[in-house]
Specification:
Elements (H helix, E strand, L loop, with lengths): L1 H49 L8 H11 L4 E3 L8 E6 L4 E7 L5 E7 L5 E6 L23
Helix pairs in contact: 1-2
Length: 147
């Protein structure tokens, strides 16, 4: 009887601990992705400070230029769930849109332009590899101070 009681108590503790652990793991994955995007944003700042003509016209040229400044991040033109992988979505409106997918399944995006506020797209499942975030629609109603 005592053994059954101990097993029951351990089972209850495990039932409580596992969801808490999974939630914490998901949040940690999201924060890691946000950190990677902030580092990518720093590379974007550096590029614009050193360039008189703004970002290159094509996403692949922008990805290549940013890669040369921040070698620890893989800048590409397709969204992937690979660690330290940032997608250069577009370079419209004189700025750059950077997006990435967290292993938790949430997409994050940043739009940066020298002539406007930096907008941070919230972690959401609204984006997908076939429908990346449209940074042109980011507005001040989104979190402009960061995540």
């Amino acid at each position: 009887m005592e053994l059954a009681t101990v097993v029951l108590i351990v089972g209850i503790l495990v039932a409580i601990a596992v969801p808490v652990y999974l939630t914490a793991q998901s949040k940690a994955q999201d924060r890691a992705v946000e950190s990677t995007l902030r580092n990518a944003l720093s590379a974007s700042h550096e590029y614009l400070l050193n360039s008189s003509s703004g970002f290159p016209g094509s996403t692949s040229s922008t990805a290549s230029a940013l890669s040369s400044l921040e070698s620890s991040i893989v800048f590409a033109t397709s969204i992937s769930q690979v660690e330290n992988h940032v997608d250069v979505v577009n370079t419209s409106n004189g700025g750059v849109c950077l997006a990435t997918l967290s292993p938790s399944g949430h997409y994050f995006a940043i739009f940066y332009s020298i002539s406007s506020t930096t907008f941070y797209g919230p972690g959401s499942t609204a984006y997908s590899p076939t429908s990346p975030p449209d940074c042109a629609t980011m507005s001040p109603t989104q979190q402009s101070a960061g995540w």
